[in-house]
Protein: Dipeptidylpeptidase
Amino acid sequence: MSPRQMAGWRMSALTLVAAIWSNIHISSALVPLDSHLFHSLRRISSPVVSPDQQQALFLTSYYDPDVNKEYNYLSLLDIEVGNMTQLTPVLEGSDRASNLVWLGPSTAGYLSKGVLYQHDLAPHTNGTLLFNATLSINSATYRASSGVLLFTANTLPDGNISSVAKHSRDEKNRTDSAMVFDNLWARHWNKWMNEEKSTLYAVNTMGEGLSGWQLGSETNLMQSLPPTKDTLLRWEVEGYTASEDGKHVAFVVRNPGLDMAWSTNVDIYLTATDGGMRPKLLTGSFKGAASSPTFSTDGSAVAWLQMKTPGYESDINRIYVYNITTGNAFSVAPEWDLSPQSILWSADNSVLYALTPDRGDRRL
Structure:
């Protein structure tokens, strides 16, 4: 487990309980927990620990049933002392913050309305715009050691990041709402499938701090994947993680094809963040679902969870490791009868920690 991850897990139960309780603001008198009160309780997000492991960012969110609106705000937690500072004013509706990142020792970052903002650690101040990719950003990750900013955004089949805005305007101005599908991948959960797919990009940055940022042009890290005939059945990134040195990124994609509606063939690819490496398929030996890629602290290896049986969503997760230097992959604890949900490397890369359901509980 990396020092940053260890710091996040070491946050004491008392500190977290204090954080939650101080954000609830309920009278000490006993009150019935009805649906109105339940939905108005304040909830905190998972903490994002600073590079020096002394502080953590988190979001507090709540819903106001009387006006039917959601709100949140960004706060800073001193891990050692337990003091909390509200950094941003309350953000309403679509302006709410998400995807917290550390952009420097004293600079936080967050997404709002699909735009990346930066924020110093001064309380009750507004963030300043750092990066607007001309379209809505879905997620962002920053690696200070290499100055690389990774983000995902929806793009069209041409892969041109600037053509999405016009397409969105044209769709909004349509006089009909008809949709035509000639495959079974027409709807996924609560959304209709369309030609816009989540794509992974990298941007090189120079400088640091609230006034010194300079950003290069975006590099599409998925453009070398095999082309597909059907524009609705294209590669779409479902998750990604970057090495601590910022040189490599592993991303999760569902293998496009006519059987996507019932297939569990989810793969993991490895590529370089500078775009100079063709994405390498790490999970080609399996037709089951792969998930949770995580890099070793020195960036020399990547581990992931792998189901083997095609079409079997309740299959057991096995742990696999790929050595980037040698190109060899191997299985860890192949006979283990439990199914881990997530994995982390130890600081010296000799141990993998796994969070695993076991007898009605989740154990480390």
User: Anything to note?
Assistant: The longest strand covers residues 55-64. The mean pLDDT is 88. The two ends are 12 Å apart (CA to CA).
